[in-house]
Write a structure and sequence with these properties.
Elements: E1 2-6, H1 9-16, E2 20-27, E3 30-37, E4 40-46, H2 51-65, E5 69-78, E6 88-96, E7 119-120, H3 123-136, E8 142-149, H4 157-167, E9 171-173, H5 176-186, E10 190-198, H6 204-228
Parallel strand pairs: 1-4, 1-5, 5-10, 6-8, 8-9
Antiparallel strand pairs: 2-3, 3-4, 5-9, 6-7, 6-10
The protein binds adenine.
Adenine binds next to strand 5, strand 9, strand 10 and helix 6.
Length: 236
Amino acid sequence: MIGIIGAMDREVDGLIAKLAQREEKTKASLVFHCGKIKEESVVIVKCGVGKVNAAFCAQILIDEFAVSCIINTGAAGSISREVGIGDVVVATEAVQHDMNAVDFGFPRGQVPFADVFAFPTDEALRKKAKECYEEINPDGRVFFGRVVTGDEFVSSSARKDAIVSEFGGLCTEMEGAAIAQVAYYNRVPFLLLRAISDRADDGAGMDFEEFSRMASERNIRLIMKMLEERYLNNEV
Ligand code: ADE
């Protein structure tokens, strides 16, 4: 079973619509849509916005649905000059930019006592995502690198610059690093896919409204291709 998480309806509706033999299960107020896409068993869920929603959703996928991998799909704000609206980011790792235990002796972003600073994603899944994206969208741009996550919709250049100077990274969003942390501690392969809806600057709110649907669709096409190629089954 492949677990797919998005924060908002617009990030998962297009995939849920593709489910055959659909069945719904509710747990902790989350609705898990189970079924088949292209012969693969999948469970798709809208977790809600933010790290706590994302984290408990991921743990339920692991405990109750025994998923063999987790994909997080959604939009993100670019924090890199290179990465523009409509581009796709495949995270190599994810960091929580709002974790601050500096006065407790840990670098900003470090989850205290965790054995890594950035939570890694699965290398094999990243490679397959790249192959598939190049096939479905040869002219599209796909970037690999750090994604930074926080319970904050970043919508000012000043805030963006502060995050970049501390953490670098390609884009910012509100769930990825939380799911990455849960996946890491459970040893479940994780793929974090984000398509850019805005530039995390003063126009972010308006751009997000305009482009987040298009961005989500881009990821959905990529996930459909990965399912079609059977790249997400238990062998990866
Ligand atoms: N998701 C999409 N755009 C975002 C932004 N600017 N900040 C946080 N999460 C986002």
